[in-house]
């Protein structure tokens, strides 16, 4: 018989990757949400596997000193799944995230390293930062947010981590006919806004009146986005350079992340005038542009991105830099074409699935003196760091940034260098 719905008490031992904490009940591992290490809680089982249970802490019997009242009424067992740590102080959230990153490095890559998660400026309460929010729409046309590990929709009248530019659109205040989901996008540096609508029918239904002006786009099955009204996206400015970013494309969602990560990547790589740089998974060209400015007209930057819209954005954004070239291709395939290229520095910011063995080995084959690897998933980052080690590159620095307060997500920057830099130099000279 299934144990889903059963309740029992346990003491929580440690934090686990993914917004969970872990304890044991009758010698079986139990992953628990809405709790903190050291707490005694009553757990309701939500999922059962042959190896472990998942559950929610529905009652706290002995609270951690790090516990706080969740600021959002939609946060808690069985409610919105968007935030994992609203019940923890911000200081505790960052400490827990650092412990998760350290544990993943230790367990997967065999690296012992203490990790300190840095606070990003501009959000001292951890709220109002998310510049892109995708709302799901129920059968009555009401917009809400998905519950944890569920297709069920939690009706909400606001999202506290949404950027003010998103909140001002009033997505949850209107009815959306024949709509599957609505993504709200707000620029963090200007007044641009956009909504991307995924309809349930072939034709786009009459749209409701929003409380703030915005561009409107339609998302088709397969991800293609079509312009309906206004701009194709929003404009963002980072370190004096303006970027056009398609509404359905990738951009860092925390307002301070663009500047913080760009500065961190440049500090890590120390690109010099005249050098050759690669920017893999380059998106709209955030790091590509900074590297282009750093290597100057005598250098070159080679960017790769698979998304057609992002490539169009990157080429437009960097059209003033003749030393920059952006290719539309799968990164692994493009690196095979560039097998004879020797890069001095490489930046990469892959999706959550990470770079993978083929890409890591190809990067090592270009013999860069430094690699800056930006990642939003510590597990795949640790896996790829281990592959870099097998390819002759060691982890020399790691920074972590709290770019997603109230959630379990954390942005990391791993810096890698050749284990034997003298050999790399001899090979290049020879």
Automatic annotation (TrEMBL):
GO biological-process terms attached to the record: methylation
Keywords: Methyltransferase, S-adenosyl-L-methionine, Transferase
Any one Pfam family match given in the protein's UniProt record, by short name: TRAM
Positions that bind S-adenosyl-L-methionine: 252, 281, 305, 349
GO molecular function: methyltransferase activity
Family listed: Belongs to the class I-like SAM-binding methyltransferase superfamily. RNA M5U methyltransferase family.
Record domain TRAM: where: 1-59
Domain of life of the native organism: Bacteria
Active site per the UniProt annotation: 376
Protein name in the entry: Class I SAM-dependent RNA methyltransferase
Keyword Chloroplast part of the UniProt annotation: no
E.C. code: 2.1.1.-
InterPro entries according to UniProt: MeTrfase_TrmA_AS, MeTrfase_TrmA_CS, NA-bd_OB-fold, SAM-dependent_MTases_sf, TRAM_dom, U5_MeTrfase_fam
């Amino acid at each position: 018989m299934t144990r889903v719905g059963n309740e029992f008490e346990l003491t929580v031992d440690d934090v686990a990757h993914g917004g969970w904490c872990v304890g044991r009940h009758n010698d079986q591992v139990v992953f628990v949400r809405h709790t903190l290490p050291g707490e005694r809680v009553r757990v309701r089982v939500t999922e059962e596997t042959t190896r472990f249970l998942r559950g929610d802490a529905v009652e706290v019997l002995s609270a951690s000193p790090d516990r706080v009242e969740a600021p959002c009424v939609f946060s808690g067992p069985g409610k919105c799944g968007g935030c994992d740590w609203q019940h923890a102080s911000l200081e505790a959230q960052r400490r827990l995230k650092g412990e998760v990153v350290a544990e993943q490095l230790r367990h997967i890559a065999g690296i012992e390293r203490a990790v300190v998660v840095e606070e990003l400026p501009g959000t001292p309460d951890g709220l109002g930062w998310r510049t892109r929010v995708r709302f799901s729409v129920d059968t009555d046309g009401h917009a809400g947010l998905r519950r944890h590990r569920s297709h069920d929709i939690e009706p909400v009248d606001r999202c506290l981590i949404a950027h003010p530019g998103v909140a001002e659109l009033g997505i949850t205040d209107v009815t959306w006919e024949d709509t599957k989901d609505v993504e709200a996008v707000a620029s963090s540096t200007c007044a641009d806004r956009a909504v991307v609508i995924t309809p349930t029918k072939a034709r786009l239904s009459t749209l409701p009146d929003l409380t703030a002006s915005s561009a409107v786009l339609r998302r088709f099955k397969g991800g293609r986005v079509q312009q309906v009204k206004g701009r194709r996206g929003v404009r963002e400015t980072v370190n004096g350079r303006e970027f056009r970013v398609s509404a359905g494309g990738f951009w860092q969602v925390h307002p301070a992340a663009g500047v913080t990560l760009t500065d961190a990547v440049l500090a890590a790589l120390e690109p010099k005038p005249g050098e050759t740089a690669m920017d893999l998974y380059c998106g709209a060209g955030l790091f590509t542009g900074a590297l282009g400015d750093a290597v100057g007209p005598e250098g070159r930057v080679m960017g790769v991105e698979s998304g057609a819209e992002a490539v169009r954005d990157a080429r437009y954004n960097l059209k003033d830099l003749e030393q920059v070239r952006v290719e539309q291709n799968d990164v692994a395939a493009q690196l095979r074409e560039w097998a004879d290229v020797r890069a001095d520095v490489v930046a990469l910011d892959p999706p959550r699935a990470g770079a993978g063995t083929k890409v890591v080995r190809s990067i090592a084959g270009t013999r860069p003196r430094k690699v800056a690897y930006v990642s939003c998933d510590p597990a795949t980052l640790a896996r790829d760091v281990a592959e870099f080690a097998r390819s002759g590159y060691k982890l020399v620095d790691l920074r972590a940034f709290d770019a997603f307060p109230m959630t379990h997500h954390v942005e990391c920057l791993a810096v890698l260098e050749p284990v034997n830099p003298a050999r790399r130099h001899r090979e290049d000279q020879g």
